[in-house]
Amino acid sequence: MRQQIIRHFNLMESVTEQNRYLCGLISVFPIQHRRPRNVEAEANLREVSYSYRVRCAGDGVATEEIVCGNAFLSIHGIKRKKIEYLVSSLKTTGNAPKDKRGKHHLGK
């Protein structure tokens, strides 16, 4: 199953398409309950939490299974920095980031 997921992921045409696919598998949730040990003004509190899913296709039926962050990274063959980049884009814009490599326009 893991080999099928990696093959499907690597055969995607562009980085933008891969980003959209991965962002579709990441859910962003607001923090439900805070239990800070320090004063809330001094504490380093998270704003949101994340849930990661993996699409599994077996017997003609596609299902999504919830997995931990490390399993998500391992199954898709990506690094943590990629997830941090995708998550920051989801937090700020709510959309997957577009690949901006090679898109420089020089002003004339």
Description:
With about 110 residues, the chain is α+β, with helices and mostly antiparallel strands. It has a domain at about 1-30 and about 50-90. The chain has 4 helices and 3 strands. It has helices at about 1-10, 15-25, 70-75, 80-90; strands at about 25-30, 50-60, 60-65. The protein has a 3-stranded antiparallel sheet. The longest helix has 13 residues, at about 80-90. The model has no long low-confidence stretch (mean pLDDT about 85).
Relevant terms:
108 residues, 37% helix, alpha+beta, three-stranded antiparallel sheet
Q: Major sheet: size, sense and barrel closure?
A: 3 strands, antiparallel
Spatial gap, N to C terminus: 51 Å
Radius of gyration: 17 Å
User: In percent terms, what proportion of residues is strand?
Assistant: 15-25%
* Spatial strand sequence of the major β-sheet: 1-2-3
State the share of residues found in helices, binned by percent.
25-40%
Number of strands: 3
Quick recap of the structure?
This protein is an alpha+beta fold and 108 residues long. Helix content is 37%, strand content 21%. The protein has a domain of 72 residues.
List the helices and strands and how they pair.
Elements: H1 2-10, H2 15-24, E1 26-30, E2 48-58, E3 61-67, H3 69-76, H4 80-92
Antiparallel strand pairs: 1-2, 2-3
